Amino acid sequence: MLKVGDRLPAGNLQEFIEVEGDGCSLGPNTFDIEKLTAGKTVAIFALPGAFTPTCSAQHVPGYVAQADALKAAGVDEIWCVSVNDAFVMGAWGRDQKTAGKVRMMADGSAAFTQATGLTLDLVPRGMGLRSQRYSMLVKDGVVKTLNIEAPGKFEVSDAGTLLKQAQAL
């Protein structure tokens, strides 16, 4: 399982791009995690699924609301990672008004989530293999803080907790 001091696992995440530019075409674009985190401080939070109750009502809105404060604390980018495809993450981002604040990163096949060891088996609930709920600060690809929620909880992966940690780095 991923821990503080580890490098993020190699691999790719996808993001649905709404506006063509910066070498990105419209629609799903694939990004290399190592290249995307190089030389940056990235706030990453992961959750079980797009459009789910706690994720939509609290988790994502908290990061959207705290985006400016996180950036003022030295965070270059904020990523929301979920085991959903890029089309779903793009639609959810539009719904949550994340543009310019939170990058909605799709881990459609759960490859990144499995590599971190932070999977959540929701097969009995009809949702398949998903991500645990967590947050972390990553500096130049290395995990500096990691907050993993207990099952069914939303207490330590929120934007306020990560903001305090970013201010302390």
- Give the terminus-to-terminus CA distance: 23 Å
> What is the topology, as strand order, of the major beta sheet?
2-1-5-4-3-8-9
Largest sheet: 7 strands, mixed
Strand content: 25-35%
How do the helices and strands follow one another from N- to C-terminus?
EEHEHHEHEHEEEEH
Uncertain parts: none
Structural class: alpha+beta
CATH superfamily name?
Glutaredoxin
Question: Could you walk me through the main structural features you see in this protein, from its secondary elements to its overall organization?
Answer:
It is a single chain. The chain has a seven-stranded mixed β-sheet with strand order 2-1-5-4-3-8-9. The protein starts with 11 loop residues before the first strand and ends with a helix. It has one domain (12-168): Glutaredoxin, CATH 3.40.30. The longest helix has 13 residues, at 53-65. It has helices spanning 33-37, 53-65, 67-72, 86-96, 111-116, 159-168, and strands at 12-17, 27-32, 41-47, 77-82, 103-106, 119-122, 128-131, 134-139, 142-148. It is an alpha+beta fold and 169 residues long. Strand 4 (77-82), helix 4 (86-96) and strand 5 form a beta-alpha-beta unit. The mean pLDDT is 94. It holds the Pfam family Redoxin. Thiol-specific peroxidase that catalyzes the reduction of hydrogen peroxide and organic hydroperoxides to water and alcohols, respectively. Plays a role in cell protection against oxidative stress by detoxifying peroxides.
